[in-house]
Amino acid sequence: MTVIPIRTLGDPVLRQPAREVTDFDDALRRLADDLFETMYDAPGVGLAANQVGLQIACFVYDDHEEHKGFVANPVLSELDGEQLEDEGCLSIPGPYHPTARALRVRLRGRDLEGNERDIRAEGLLARIFQHETDHLLGGLYIDRLDDEGRRDVMRQLRELELERASGGGTSRTVGHRERALE
Ligand code: ZN
What we know:
By secondary structure, the chain is an alpha+beta fold. The chain has helices at residues 26-41, 124-136, 147-165, 171-174; strands spanning 46-48, 58-62, 68-80, 83-89, 92-101, 104-110, 116-122. Residues 89-91, 131, 135, 181-182 line the site of zinc ion (ZN).
């Protein structure tokens, strides 16, 4: 298994929709292993393939509440209710901002063998599924914020860059780590 560098904001691959998975083969299993390894190393609770530069419609997740797995060709339906919680992204490392999401979703897709997966999720898991599915369509959570929200994320990003440039720590992110989405 290999930790793959995560692409960050400004990399065009994050803005391109991923291709449907058609081959459920050893290469896909290796990719899933690498995605898990990279997600845990970051650390984060989800990671989409295009975040490591591969335009392949799949992602891995682990909400640390006993829900973890791999989904290819995800499709969301039955979005219901609303939740507003801090959201971040491994491709926009550091900042968090309250982001509105559906509270409950149904996610359908395929597992590593190509079998159908059909999952009903709520809360954090529903948020992860929405975040990762957005990635595979070329979306980012900041697209869902208003102008002020986006400006706040960019401001946090600049402050963190300045901190790092001056040799300071990144203590601001530590308390939020377990919420880091991918
Ligand atoms: Zn993300």
